[in-house]
Every structure is written in structure tokens, then in C-alpha cells.
Amino acid sequence: MMMTETVSLLSVPFGYGAGRHGSEMGPQAIFNAGLMRQLSELQIPVQDEGPLTVPQHYNSTHPRLKYFHEIIELNTNLAAKVSEIVARNSFPLVLGGDHSIAIGTYAGLAQHYKNLGVIWFDAHADLNTEDSSPSGNIHGMSLGVGLGRGPDLLTQIKGAGPNLKPENIVLIGTRQLDAGEKEYIRSSGIKCFTMHDIDRKGMSNVMDEAMSIVTRGTDGVHLSFDIDSLDPLEAPGTGTKIPGGVSYREAHFALELMYESRKITSAEFVEVNPSLDAGNKTARLTVELIASLLGQRIL
After folding, report:
1. Residue 227 belongs to a domain
2. Catalytic positions, please?
3. What CATH code is carried by the domain that includes residue 257?
4. Which residues form the signal peptide (predicted)?
5. Residue-wise pLDDT tens digits, 187-204
């Protein structure tokens, strides 16, 4: 399935879904860290779609959900753009922004894939609802929306939900779950590889199992990669740092295996926050990880 002839780079400079502002500067930081040069060295044809126009803050009010209407507007526009990219047989590579933009990414993909597999690389499960979320930040609900968990206006964005199926989803790198999320993961049958599982099985076995799950009966596989899946010592520039994450080599190895599978049909990299970074270290790492997904090798 992967790779199509062209990679379409879509920047989404949007950070209202996160608890701390700054991730809206992530796409530019990733570009500044040498993304185009890296892709050029890989001789990959790249179409730069430019930044998606993001809504201005207009004091939307919702009793529990922060920036609810801005997030609906943003993801409605993002879904249309992602759908357009897929329709041209190009590979959508979405650069966030916070993880609430995943709602628009898979909403656009769902207009072309009826049984989408999803690899959710993240310290968190992002399966909260307006009732279970301790913060009201929608970046912690983005996967849940795809499964039909959440307010109708979010789940009814064209293609947004409920369009994903629990049996087609794999969480990797998880290490902080709220009580409601634990319960939902157990009851729904979503496969979750926590850091404990990675320690016990090794990343190679985890990825073998993960790829087996997301390619079984699916017609496409989307990678949603939150940079906070890595250990904060490797990736300090992100808003919700949880110690004890995926190592530098584990992350690269996982992405190299995804490239070798030739099954990934779209990807997004989110939650790079340059205002919290150390010398653009996290943005540079993100460029390297994207390169591993797209075929960069040591030899």
C-alpha cells in the first residue's frame, strides 16, 4: 500500500487542543530543523501543501470542552484537505499542532478507507470524553472521537466518527491512562502496548504484533505519532512530558519496520512544542523520525 509516488506535506499550526500553547509553532520548527533537505536526500517527490488556515480564537464556550468550536472548524477543514490529498493518490504527511488535529486527519482518510488501521504512538491513549476528561483539553479525546466517544458535533464531522474500529487500533508507548480510559481499553478490545510491554517483549516483537493487527482486514494504515511517546530526555519539547518513554533507538526501529512493511498509507507527527524545547532538539528528532518512516537507513 505504501508508498505512493508523492508525499504531500500539510502543516497544521494549531494548538488550541492542548493544555499549553506552543504546539502551533511545531510545523515551522520541524521545517526549520531541515525537513525539506532530509526528504530531498531521500529523493522523495514532495508537494508542500503549505499551512492549513486555522481559525482564530473567538471565545467559544462549552461547559466542559476548551476551544470546542475552533476545533470543529479546524478539523472540518483539515478533513477536506486530507481527503483531497488521498484522492490525488498522494501520501498525506500531516505536521501538527496538537493531537486534536488527528480528528480531521482520520475524518479525511475515512472518506477513502472503510476499514482503516491505526497505530497510535503516544504516552497517552487520548480516549477521554467530556465526562471523563480531567482537563477539558480535546487533544486527550481525539482517538475517542474516532470511535464515537464524545459530543455529536465532533463525532459528526464528515468521516470523524464513529468510523474507527477498536479491533483495528493499536496503542504503543502508553504510560499514563485515566481510569475511564483503562476501563474502555479493556472492554473494547483495543490492543495497548504499554511501556511495560515494550520492556518485556522488545520493540521488535511489539511491532510484529502491531502490524499484524492493523493490517488484518484493513484497507489502509494510518500512523499517528505523538512526540511525547518518546522519553522526555530525548524529546523535551512537548507539553505533556511523562518520564520513562520510548528510547531514541526504539522509536527509529519502530518507524524503520513500518517503512519495511510498505503498509503505511498516511502519517501525522504532533505535539512538538518549540517553546519548551532545548535548542530545537525535539524538532530535529522529529525530522529524523519522519525520515526513518520514509526510508532513511544507516547503511
Report:
1. yes
2. 99, 122, 124, 126, 139, 226, 228, 271
3. 3.40.800.10
4. none
5. 999 999 999 999 999 999
